[in-house]
Specification:
alpha/beta; globular
Length: 225
């Protein structure tokens, strides 16, 4: 029995209808959405990492999770306690907050901490910079989304190893063969392509769907859990 809404599951089905080659990923796509939604429901966060184009993808994922994507996520619909507290403390600003703040799905990219990663690379081990961040901010119940088109990126692999030590579920997004990452992660979404750019052409609609599905699960007022 699915732990997500019917309308959330429909986002996965619609993705496969648009990209029939992703039929092979159906089970892993459902698992990814269910695990991520369960993590958010438990008050946990999504941690994302990758290199190059996949680093850009990691930041893109966070951008869609942390603000409204397709739904408005109004704070007066979903966080009335915040609104009440704002009215008490800052009555002159509460309407501005209500008009502009949006509820977030907590997500962090590991690729943008330039000062930390360069200091760590200079002082310690460059290929452990993601692992260091997972060790520092991760906790049991979080999800690590590890993106590598080859599945062989050492810094991503080390991040997954640290996540496994800490009891953090890891989801790999990779290519057809998956490399080491496929076997090391808890489960993998293996895009049916081989070269980096063709794998990335699948990764974008996959993570867009994951963001849409998670947003629908928590912020679709038309269907409640």
């Amino acid at each position: 029995m699915s732990v997500i809404k019917k309308s959330t599951a429909k986002k996965i089905v619609e993705l496969i209808e648009r990209y029939p080659a992703l039929e092979i990923c159906r089970e892993s796509l459902f698992t990814a959405v269910e695990k991520i939604c369960k993590s958010f429901r438990g008050g946990n966060k999504l941690i994302v990492c990758g290199n190059g184009g996949s680093a850009a993808d990691a930041m893109h994922v966070v951008g869609e999770m942390m603000k409204g994507f397709l739904l408005p996520r109004k704070i007066d619909d979903f966080n009335k306690k915040f609104v009440e507290r704002a009215e008490e403390l800052f009555p002159g600003d509460v309407n501005y907050f209500k008009a502009n703040l949006q509820c977030a799905l907590p997500a962090i990219s590991l690729v943008g901490e330039t000062a930390l990663t360069t200091a760590y690379a200079n002082d310690n081990a460059p290929d452990l910079s993601f692992a260091q961040q997972v060790f520092g901010i991760g906790k049991r119940g979080d999800i690590l989304l590890a993106i590598s088109t080859s599945g062989m990126s050492e810094n991503v692999i080390y991040a997954v190893e640290v996540a496994k030590i800490m009891g953090i579920t890891s989801i790999a997004m990779t290519g057809r063969h998956g490399g080491r990452l496929k076997h090391l992660s808890d489960f993998a979404i293996c895009a049916p392509a081989d070269s980096a750019y063709t794998v990335q052409e699948f990764h974008l609609p996959i993570y867009h769907m994951i963001c849409m599905a998670a947003e629908n699960e928590f912020f679709n007022l038309e269907e409640k859990n």
